[in-house]
Amino acid sequence: MIFLAENHGHHDDDDHDHGHLHEHDHVEGHDDHHDHHHGHGHGHMHGVVDPSIFSTERGIWAVKWSFVGLFITAILQVVVVFYSGSVSLLADTIHNFGDALTAIPLLFAFLLTVKKPTYRFTYGYGRVEDLAGVAVVVLILISALVAGYESIDRLFHPQQVTFLWAVALAAVIGFIGNEAVAQLRLRVGKEIGSAALVADGYHARTDGWTSLAVLFGAVGVYFGFPLADPIIGLGITVAIFWIVWESAKAIVVRLLDGVDPEIPKEIFHVAHHVSGLRKVTDVKVRWLGHRLHAEVSITVDTSLSVEQGHAIAQEVNHELLHHLRYLSDATIHVDPMTASGPAYHHVSEHSHEGLPPHSH
Fold first, then answer.
1. What is the DSSP code string of 185-252?
2. Using the 8-state DSSP alphabet, how is residue 358 labeled?
3. Does pTM surpass 0.70?
4. Which sign does the torsion angle of CA 242, 103, 10, 111 carry?
5. DSSP letter assigned to residue 350
6. Average pLDDT value over all residues in the chain
7. Residue 183 CB neighbour total at 10 angstroms
8. Do residues 98 and 174 make contact, with C-beta atoms less than 8 angstroms apart?
9. What is the DSSP pairing of strand 291-300 with strand 2-6?
């Protein structure tokens, strides 16, 4: 029996009473006192929108305005780079552009939410978001190579940096822009209980100090040490490569259908709070764009009717979508106690219509 339901936005009251009887086999290490109402602060990797952020309008709002703030900051710095020739400011500008560009996959997510699944793309177009992420990482990598090359070239072939006052001002603008984004992310992150958004806030604050390093480079040049500019540029280039590394890891994991290991554990736990469910035998979770899809196999008593089994599956689905806001939908497979587990879904070797023996 298969039960599928989409999460169209649960607005149940958080104080809703789920006082179920626990007539089931507990998963090893199961804690009945686990609190479901946490911020879902799973391991966060740079460049990927955490599901706990995307599950609320405030989180989406924070991500969009963070992008706007960093993009405007970088544009203002580009103008100064063009006239001053500062390689350290060039690196910091690329750094800020890189941070802003990691939100572009989210833009694709917004654009594609209006497109419905088709018979060719039955799961929708969420994977385009990941392809956009790959393109962003490649773009940032190329930019990092350019910044690194320019910084090394300036070490061996020093050039005069002009408009030092403008370079210093652009460094301060970079600091202010990143600090404003940090304040926004920290405030909203604490408001919606998103550990990932809070972590991004502290990351933006660190980037602000990176921008301020350009100011020290300008001061060094002013006092007769021209190599200060390319040295600072190399340091910032290392930070850009770190963005590339973290973002690439995150995207590769998603393309391979990898998820935070805590998520399937949490699904096991939540499902086991449904009355009448004997055990959960299998949980699979994968990304579909910016949301997660789960496939859960459960076991019920053999004596139950199809209608009763369906009711339990429906309640499991309700529990999952109610407690785990980052799920877009869940497919529930129901097994009887006499045929419980993935092993019973396997079709043994057989042959038909003249085909070689095979199994499913």
1. HHHHHHHHT-HHHHHHHHHHHHHHHHHHHHHHHHHHHHTT-TTHHHHHHHHHHHHHHHHHHHHHHHHH
2. B
3. no
4. negative
5. B
6. 77
7. 13
8. no
9. unpaired
